[in-house]
Amino acid sequence: SAAKLIDGVAIAKQIRDEVKAEVSEITASGKRPPQLTVVLVGSDPASVIYIKNKIKACEYTGITSDTIRLPNSITEKELLTELDLLNNDPNVDGLLVQLPVPDHICERTICDSVAPEKDVDGFNIMNVGSFCVDAESFIPATPAAVMQMIKRTGIETFGKNAVVCGRSKNVGLPIAIFLHGDGDRGNLAGDATTTICHRYTPPEQLQVFTKTADIIVAAAGVPNLITADIVKEGVVVIDVGINRVDHPDNNGKSMLVGDVDFEGVSQKASYISPVPGGVGPCTVAMLMKNTLLAYKKEIHFAAH
Ligand code: ADP
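# adenosine-5'-diphosphate complex -> structure
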């Protein structure tokens, strides 16, 4: 049986259109639109492309945006001063620092220096701690995208077996938090029995888990990690991987692939998300949703 495609481009458009409709209502009532400010340190080519996609989504939805480009040589202290200005700027609703930052700057310090109520990436430790205890928070865009793709496709997670491959703090870990979480407490939580696999999960153990999984979320950054022989018939597969590999034509070109052998796994899965055109576009759309939430000041943090 051939799997149904989870069309990330279509779901992303649906989400962007919801944001766009709300932004038009805001501007029609005479108020200024939401504003997203992105800080880029240096000129990492992948970061430049990611930011371009974010700005395009802002333009589509009517959110205003600004990219602040800072030199690679900037000190951590100077960057913190810049963030302080933006945190205190009432015209900035959403604020994010595009990762990675250069090695001489501490990523954790930077993430924690974006004001929690402007932290549309959900990387501030206040946000991370809040969603871990089912309190109000911004939900990082990639986990939010994965959960939206599951929910909007009508995939049941309640009581199912889910496997997440990858435990990164910004992607794998929060995905597992939402998949296993208590649906009575968090509206995105999936109530699935969730297993987290990572780089030290031996391949023979990985397949013990993936073979009993109803839902597999692959976020390991390993091409062909998930192949048809290690999944069961009818599995739902969400591919979060973004890997640049040589083009099979051997023409010197490269191409993007996920962590899943799409051709093979499609023959067994009930639903599968492609790369490109899956999680990526939905992630950008969820960032727009978070920026709108920041504008509406809908996320409240306990006094700290
Ligand atoms: P991202 O932030 O996109 O999740 P990272 O490169 O930061 O990507 O993290 C990759 C994650 O994938 C790590 O948590 C790592 O332990 C995990 N990982 C790497 N190799 C494997 C593997 N063979 N099986 C399962 N998980 C893996």
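# post-check
The chain has ten helices and eleven strands.
The pocket of adenosine-5'-diphosphate is lined by residues 165-168, 170-172, 197-199, 201, 206, 219-222, 225 (CB under 6 Å).
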